[in-house]
Design a protein that fits this description.
- The chain is mostly helical.
- 50% of the residues lie in helices and 6% in strands.
- The strands form 2 sheets. A 3-stranded antiparallel sheet has the order 1-2-3. It has a 3-stranded antiparallel sheet with strand order 4-5-6.
- A hairpin with a 5-residue loop joins strand 2 and strand 3.
- The termini are far apart.
- The structure holds s-citryldethia Coenzyme A.
- The site of s-citryldethia Coenzyme A has 20 residues, from loops.
Length: 431
């Protein structure tokens, strides 16, 4: 809180609206007493101007393209850490010591299996089911497979049995859904592989063609998961908080977040970008046709992978992923014409006033799919990869919401009603 306030005058009466200030200097009008004081609510569809909570997890500066997890710049974390280190940082607020990391690493090994009865679920999804619907279903069902063992001493205390179990098992669920989808035998997690190495091995190992975990692929995956690990109050994280605020336990709350992430305007965009690039490639590489469609006010077509609600400059994650694209493809000796096409589109867009005037830059989803392709991950699994990365962020916000007395009250927005005011009932025979 500051000791300053804004003056609001309604029908000649003046009201003091307190001003709150973040630790980074941003200021907000505190309207928590507005309805009680004035009888008015505010109206802000899409919550463009509305802060839903106070949070100490992640800081975004959309104007300057800054992203920090618990005060650490994303560039430092993506360059120097393992994904499980960053997951630990988000959950606890501190980077782990060597012994804390070893214990967390052991938890990731210990909890990697899923209940054998869960495996039968995979047999009953229709063929070609979306891996996102499978992931959301399976994660929600963890609540029933592990109900009693989740009553941690402090369920909101950072790294707990419940959170370690989910972080570890989500890899297994994702990889098993892929193997089932391609009709290959399941590959079980191993004790001698890292968090990312285990996932890649579960995805690509085969009895007839053993997979050799490639350190370049492991390093690329660590970086990608770190860059997706949290992003303050985005749509899916806000969903996890809202569902959790009703008293819903962790696993079903995360299941709701997975469903929200699925949307093509949100986490589904990484797959939509590659599909857009493939469409343009198949259309004689006529990218100007699609750029012009995106600019046409009478066409709802969007250049997916561009634009962001908060970033009005280059998404810092996109910058790092774009750099990694070239490094990973060169190291893996992969040629992908879609990368050249993506870079050409970015070049044209960056000089086009329609995009410049609307602050439309590449976001986290524009280049990430190019790396997933180089790692051999199919397009329909891209948003699952986003979910694997975002999971520690979702869990942390679910915990933080519960630990804050105010934000753990059930979320319940109001509305501006625009329907019929009132009318007498008409019986069926008189209609
Ligand atoms: C993620 O919130 C987060 O932090 C999300 C995320 C995270 O880590 O959790 O960063 C992950 O979801 C990234 C965004 C992925 N989505 C896409 O790439 C889909 C394509 N982008 C857009 O649909 C759009 O930019 C959004 C959804 C990302 C943001 O939408 P906004 O903030 O509601 O902006 P808007 O739709 O009001 O657009 C403002 C103007 C409009 O033009 P005008 O009406 O002013 O003429 O910009 C135009 C839009 O038509 N515009 C685009 C465009 N994005 C916005 N025009 C063409 N192509 C685009 N991609």
């Amino acid at each position: 809180m500051t000791n300053q306030s804004a003056q609001l005058i309604i029908e000649g009466k003046s009201y003091d609206i307190p001003i709150v200030e973040s630790t980074t200097g941003e200021r907000a009008l505190d309207i928590r007493q507005l309805l009680k004081q004035t009888g008015y609510i505010t109206f802000d569809s899409g919550y463009m101007n509305t802060g839903s909570c106070q949070s100490a997890v992640t800081y975004l500066d959309g104007k300057n393209g800054i992203l920090r997890y618990r005060g650490y710049d994303i560039e430092d974390l993506a360059t120097n850490c393992l994904f499980i280190e960053v997951a630990y940082l988000l959950l606890t607020g501190e980077l782990p010591t060597q012994s804390e990391l070893e214990k967390f690493r052991h938890d990731m090994i210990r909890f990697a299996l899923i209940h054998e009865d869960m495996i039968h679920f995979f047999d009953h999804f229709p063929p070609n089911s979306s891996p996102m619907s499978i992931l959301s279903t399976m994660v929600g069902s963890l609540h029933d497979f592990y109900p009693e063992m989740d009553l941690d001493e402090d369920p909101y205390g950072g790294v707990t049995t419940m959170t370690a179990r989910l972080l570890s098992k989500i890899r297994t669920i994702a990889a098993f859904s892929y193997k089932k989808n391609i009709g290959h035998p399941l590959v079980y997690p191993r004790a001698d592989l890292s968090y990312c190495g285990n996932f890649l091995n579960m995805m690509f190992d085969r009895p007839n063609m053993p997979y050799k975990v490639d350190p370049i692929a492991v390093s690329a995956l660590n970086k990608l998961l770190i860059l997706h690990a949290d992003h303050e109050q985005n749509c899916s994280t806000s969903t996890v908080r809202l569902v959790g605020s009703a008293g819903v336990r962790l696993y079903p709350s995360i299941s709701a977040g997975i469903s929200a992430l699925w949307g093509p305007l949100h986490g589904g965009a990484n797959a939509a970008v590659v599909r857009m690039l493939e469409t343009i490639q198949a259309d004689n590489m006529d990218y100007m046709k699609y750029i012009n469609k995106a600019k046409d006010p009478n066409d709802s077509y969007r250049l997916t992978g561009f634009g962001h609600r908060v970033y009005k400059t280059y998404d810092p994650r996109a910058k790092l992923i774009k750099q990694a694209c070239t490094e990973v493809l060169n190291s893996l000796n992969v040629q992908d014409p879609l990368l050249d096409l993506a870079q050409e589109i970015e070049h044209v867009v960056s000089n086009d006033d329609y995009f410049i005037s609307r602050n439309l830059y590449p976001n986290v989803d524009f280049y990430s799919g190019i790396i997933y392709r180089a790692l051999g991950i199919p397009t329909n699994m891209f948003t699952v990869m986003f979910a694997l990365g975002r999971l520690p962020g979702w869990i942390t916000h679910w915990q933080e919401m519960h630990m804050d007395k105010e934000s753990s009250r059930i979320g319940r927005p109001r509305q501006v009603y625009t329907g019929v005011v009132s009318r007498p009932f008409v019986s069926l025979e008189d209609r």
